[in-house]
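User: Could you check the structure of this?
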Amino acid sequence: MKVSAEDVRYIAQLSRLTVPDSEMEKFTQQFNEILNYADILQKIDMEGIEATPYVLHISNSFREDVAKPGVSCEEALKNAPAVHGDGFKVPRVIK
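Assistant: Sure, the predicted structure tokens are below.
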């Protein structure tokens, strides 16, 4: 598949990008290089290769779920600029 300057303009319009005419040839060439590389990848024989989401083997990378003590209400509010009851007092946003 060959990309034309018209295709690049259309893609730029869809992407809401402005491509100057002075760079149109450069972008057209780059799009074509990307598509040529994708064609090369399509020709690779993948028969017998198992699909994998990761390049490196990852075992369980999660830590144990252990309950830890939290912060008390007084400690959480001690540096608050304004307090209302048991919570932070903030400026009204909705009238």
